[in-house]
Amino acid sequence: MNRIYIIFLLLVSITVFSQSEKEVKNQQIVWYTYNVNWKLNNNWQLVTDVSERQFINPTAQHLWSVRANFKRVITANWDFGFGGSLFIRKLNDPYKTNPLIVPELRPHIEFNNTQKLGFGTLNSRYRIEARLYQNTKDGELSDGYYFNNFRLRYLLGWTFPIIKNKNTSNELVFVKIQDEIMVNAGSKIVRNTFDQNRIYLALNYKVSNKFSIETGYLNSFQQQPIGDEFLNRNILRLTIFQKIE
């Protein structure tokens, strides 16, 4: 499966970069996220997060979001998840003013696999999400939502410890390396089947068994619907993780 992912990623990259003319816009953003993992029982858990995203230079709000994901253990290495998100995107460009803020709903399903690799852990996530936007009429929001497209996402990550507690030998600091590719599907997708690729590198500090703090850098390279325009985003991510049992 990992070989298939690498081949697919290379093919998508060749397709994107082979275009003779393209415009790349660079943006700097910071993400603040609070993530809570509720253990409901031995088989079920609810993972929720709230996120605020801000542009840097110039400073402006990009969006905020809330997500809920129910996860069910299938085997020792696999689990299944389903849930949804609400995204309120204020700006896609800090130099422009959007006349109307349109809420977006993203229901999703996913499968997650975890396995040991060397002295760390290899994680794979397969997610399909639908993107629905609130209807508008005469420049204002109206009732109901319309379906825009599906988005298929594959994430491959490796996490490994680098610092342990001298007294208890418990792992304190982890390195997290991830790569995620997203592709669009649907009748409204014409020139941007490739959506984006995200590369992430982070340090996670385990404050206690129930709290951890993570700081990382994420690079997002995203194709716009027009086809020959791309966003290259340099993102600082600050995340607090909490577990409730």
Draw up the topology in text.
Blueprint (H helix, E strand, L loop, with lengths): L1 H16 L5 E17 L4 E12 L4 E14 L4 E12 L13 E3 L2 E10 L2 E18 L2 E25 L6 E15 L8 E13 L4 E13 L5 E16 L1
Parallel strand pairs: 1-12
Antiparallel strand pairs: 1-2, 2-3, 3-4, 4-5, 4-6, 5-7, 6-7, 7-8, 8-9, 9-10, 10-11, 11-12
Summary tags:
mainly beta, Porin, 12-stranded mixed β-sheet, 1 helix, globular
Describe the protein.
The structure is a single chain. The chain has one domain (2-244): monomeric porin ompg (Porin). 7% of the residues lie in helices and 69% in strands. The chain has one helix and twelve strands. The protein has one helix at residues 2-17; strands at residues 23-39, 44-55, 60-73, 78-89, 103-105, 108-117, 120-137, 140-164, 171-185, 194-206, 211-223, 229-244. Strands 1, 2, 3, 4, 5, 6, 7, 8, 9, 10, 11 and 12 form a twelve-stranded mixed sheet that branches. A hairpin with a 6-residue loop joins β8 and β9 (171-185). The two termini are 33 Å apart. The model has no long low-confidence stretch (mean pLDDT 91).
Structural class: mainly beta
CATH fold title: Porin
Sheet of most strands: 12 strands, mixed
Number of domains: 1
Shape: globular
Low-confidence stretches: none
What is the C-alpha radius of gyration, as a whole number of Å? 19 Å
Distinct helical segment count: 1
State the distance separating the first and last CA atoms.
33 Å
Strand content: over 45%
Elements, N to C (H/E): HEEEEEEEEEEEE
In round numbers, the mean pLDDT is 91
Percent of residues in helical segments?
under 10%
User: What's the number of extended β-strand segments?
Assistant: 12
CATH superfamily: monomeric porin ompg
Q: Tell me, what is the CATH class?
A: Mainly Beta
Architecture (CATH level 2) name? Beta Barrel
InterPro entries: DUF2490
Organism: Flavobacterium paronense
Protein name: DUF2490 domain-containing protein
